[in-house]
Design a protein that fits this description.
heterodimer; A: alpha+beta; Rossmann fold; OB fold (Dihydrolipoamide Acetyltransferase, E2P); 6-stranded mixed β-sheet; B: mainly alpha; MetI-like fold
């Protein structure tokens, strides 16, 4: 079991109110991702759940037990840190065994569980090395191993992939997802990278300045963002926002069109502009278009075969069924 | 010219300079240790000038080895150095860990803690032996008198008086005495050098990774386990540095020993050298060579210890 409920939780550092009253329920076995720009309070929220920060007010409930005042180690949660936070003077074996050693688990059982974790994480050959002799990805796996052996009610990940290079990040992302499929344990994952959020999450929590902007599945957030912030944050490249007369045609203050929902043509279309930069990714081409009279830059995602050069005139047609409309307060109009 | 010759050539002046810096005093000491050389002798005026014709072979060494104070000096050197190292490292770690947390007045506390280090060794010794450790006028004497008076008063008390009447009267310790003067030196030098250890450990503690501690907290480690498994290994290298630097300094302690007891019952090798050097330069040089050997033995063990921590 691992159902985590936050009730009216707030956090202030002196006069700085980092998290205004916040309610959130994370169901058992769910992979929840906290995502938001840096400084939005997502790490603080995770640390509140872990118990590394004390709540200023409100309650944290894990499996129907109020743990607000319970010490971090008694909450049954395991955390994986961005810097891995391995113990540099201990071998991998001792690092992984450390939580069991602290809990007084018999040595034979420690060894057994360390071996099991090492096997599932491909660390068997490295058990007698020190963290300093491992690569970034291996260190991250050791940190995960140290979390697994505790058999926690929930895993907490604090930007675990930010220190890895791009190729490793994709690999580790898959490994963590597979681990979740296998273990079915509740996982809370903090990241500023919306791609990680979209690919891994069962449920995404979008945060801005400590406030939850929207909670939903990745596709809900992509298809029906509740406001302009979520619409701009989820999706890559970012959604185009158009204000003024054109938006008024749609009966909105602002309209948002995703780059992948615009069709390009050389001869006719609803809007016209000049190509500034075209980025060829092979499978796709991103066009950055100026002089449309709609917004500073319009980004379009087209098929990899489409080719326009700098300075070419381009005609754009949005897919009307997926144009997002927002009112003056930035909220979605349905 | 191979690509290694030029760098070596460029290093040569520095290496040669350092070599002479070391070699000249060392070889002069060696030379003096094998000849008869005194500062003042009415009977044998030819001994007052260093000359090969006064060759004495290992005579000076024999003379030093047979001196009744020599073994005591070596024992004392080791006792004093090891005790000071032991206490400064322990106190240093405890104090550094204590003041590592932020609290109001932190800056002032740190300055006050460092201040003993700025007291001159001679002044330090005078202050301690006269004002604090003196059995009559010092704080020690006053404290012992005070305790005796309290015990005396308690003996008069009903019910518990019999218990205190079993207690002996306390006598203050005279730290200038033969048996205790080394302890006085250890106390005062520990007081003076603990700040040095605190300073080094404090800077090291500030570079300790906080996320590791948080991970340990989540792993169920209490304050003691965090100290034992994270902080202490983290301090391994600074401890090695403190031990090495202090060993170098304390092998040559002199002022404190001179002031506490004028070497009475408490000589170390430098003090013995000083005594010989009043007249007998040959014997003093021979003792110096023994001191060099002792320092090398100590350095050998220290370097091995430090090498081990650096390897990790």
């Amino acid at each position: 079991m691992g159902r985590i409920v936050l009730e009216n939780v707030t956090k202030s550092f002196g006069d700085a109110h980092v998290i205004p009253p916040l309610d959130l329920t994370i169901e058992d076995g769910e992979f929840t991702v906290f995502v938001g720009p840096s400084g939005c309070g997502k790490s603080t929220l995770l640390r509140l759940i872990a118990g590394l920060e004390e709540t200023t007010s409100g309650r944290i409930v894990i499996d129907d037990a109020d743990v607000t005042e319970v010490s971090p180690s008694k909450r049954g949660l395991a955390m994986v840190f961005q810097s891995y936070a391995l113990y540099p003077h201990m071998t991998v074996r001792k690092n992984i065994a450390f939580p069991m050693r602290m809990a007084g688990v018999p040595e034979s059982e420690q060894e057994e569980r360390v071996m099991a974790a090492a096997k599932s994480l491909n660390l068997v050959d490295y058990l007698d090395r020190k963290p300093g002799q491992l690569s970034g990805g291996q260190r991250q796996r050791v940190a995960i191993g140290r979390a697994i052996v505790r058999d926690p009610t929930a895993f907490l990940f604090d930007e675990p992939l930010s220190n890895l290079d791009a190729a490793l990040r994709v690999g580790m992302r898959l490994e963590i997802s597979e681990m979740h499929e296998r273990m079915k344990t509740t996982m809370i994952y903090v990241t500023h990278d919306q791609v990680e959020a979209m690919t891994m999450a069962d449920k995404i929590v979008v945060l801005q300045a400590g406030v939850i902007e929207q909670v939903g599945t990745p596709l809900e957030l992509y298809r029906t963002p509740r406001n302009k912030f979520v619409a701009g944050f989820i999706g890559s490249p970012k959604m185009n926002f158009i204000t003024g007369e054109e938006a008024a045609h749609y009966g909105a203050e602002t309209i948002g069109v995703r780059p992948e929902h615009i069709q390009v043509s050389a001869d006719s279309g609803k809007w016209t502009g000049k190509v500034s930069v075209s980025e060829h990714l092979g499978s796709d081409t991103f066009f950055h278009i100026h002089d449309t009279g709609l917004a500073d830059t319009i980004t379009v995602r087209a098929d990899g075969e489409v080719s326009f050069k700098h300075g070419d005139t381009i005609h754009l047609t949005p897919r009307e069924d997926v144009v997002h409309k927002f009112d003056a307060a930035g909220l979605r109009i349905t | 010219m191979s690509n290694r010759t030029l760098p070596r050539l460029l290093q040569t002046p520095a290496v040669v300079l350092l070599l002479f810096w070391m070699l000249i005093p060392l070889s002069m000491t060696l030379y003096f240790s094998f000849i008869r050389y005194v500062l003042n002798s009415l009977r044998r005026p030819e001994w007052t000038k260093p000359s090969l014709s006064n060759w004495r072979g290992f005579g000076n060494y024999e003379f030093v080895l047979n001196n009744k104070d020599f073994l005591l000096a070596i024992q004392n050197s080791l006792l004093i150095v090891c005790s000071i190292l032991f206490f400064t490292v322990i106190f240093g770690i405890l104090i550094a860990v204590l003041i590592n947390k932020s609290f109001p007045g932190q800056g002032i506390v740190r300055v006050l803690l460092i201040s003993p280090f700025f007291v001159m060794p001679a002044v330090n010794a005078v202050l301690w032996i006269n004002m604090i450790l003196d059995p009559v006028l010092g704080l020690q004497g006053l404290a012992v008198n005070g305790l005796n008076e309290v015990i005396q008063a308690l003996r008069e008390a009903p019910l518990i008086g019999w218990f205190f009447s079993l207690w002996p009267e306390l006598t203050p310790i005279s730290f200038r005495a033969t048996q205790t003067s080394a302890i006085a030196v250890i106390i005062m030098v520990t007081w003076q050098w603990t700040p040095f250890a605190v300073l080094i450990f404090m800077t090291s503690l500030q570079s300790e990774d906080q996320q590791q501690k948080e991970a340990a907290i989540l792993d169920g480690a209490g304050a003691w386990s965090q100290f034992r498994f994270l902080t202490l290994p983290h301090l391994g290298r600074p401890i090695a540095i403190v031990v090495m630097i202090q060993a170098i300094f304390h092998l040559s302690l002199y002022a404190e020993i001179e002031i506490v007891s004028r070497g009475n019952g408490n000589k170390n090798l430098p003090y013995l050298i000083g005594e010989f050097a009043n007249n007998n330069i040959g014997a003093a040089s021979a003792t110096g060579i023994f001191a060099v050997i002792l320092a090398n033995i100590v350095a050998f063990f220290l370097l091995r210890m430090i090498g081990k921590t650096l390897m990790e």
